[in-house]
């Protein structure tokens, strides 16, 4: 049974919000009473997600944004504050995968793209969220790293570099902003049943049997399980948790 959170009167900002972990977290924030700004690059999927939550009686809005573009990020955060009056919680979740490749064969374009979204995108979101939160003297930010931010795997050098970078970014900013009333942490999901993973399976870039074999819990995670971790990190129950890279990985990194 999941804890019950009371986020009434609070405002959440979620990137990559139209599907997978982002949608599950947006839904969970909204069900807990928060107003939620859903942010995504896919306008059609974003419109569908906003319509779903609005139909359920939730207070939400959506804005299209490419997190690799800082100007778009700044505008999305400003739109959130304009629409809802403040910003209390953020889940910087937007990210991409790239096909596995020998480190000696990696292209500049692939390295640059994955880091532009996964690392620079988190940096830009956190930067502009902090502009608002430091005015308020309060807030909680959760950045999405990965199991790939804690370990290495062959063929994943550039992706893992981006996710390791998110943890360094999180820890340093957390130390800087904890005295100002803003808590910053990261989640590090293991393999999770999401549309991104489904697409990787279809392309032969992810083998379900191997992933399950390597998981002590013997299954993949769910998007709702990641959402639960994010909500806890944003809640008063995690008031002493600062600068943590929390594995939510079924025990993979405990081996």
Order of helices and strands: EHEHEHEHEHEEHHEHE
Taking the sheet with the most strands, its summary is:
7 strands, parallel
Taken as a percent bin, the fraction of beta residues is: 15-25%
Roughly how much helix do the residues carry, as a percent range? 40-55%
User: What structural category arises from helix and sheet content?
Assistant: alpha/beta
Number of domains: 1
The CATH superfamily appears as: NAD(P)-binding Rossmann-like Domain
Q: Could you tell me the radius of gyration in angstroms?
A: 17 Å
Low-pLDDT stretches = none
Which CATH architecture is right?
3-Layer(aba) Sandwich
The count of strands amounts to: 9
Q: Regarding CATH, which class?
A: Alpha Beta
Domain Ketoreductase: 10-190
Family: Belongs to the short-chain dehydrogenases/reductases (SDR) family.
GO molecular function: oxidoreductase activity
Protein name: NAD(P)-dependent dehydrogenase (Short-subunit alcohol dehydrogenase family)
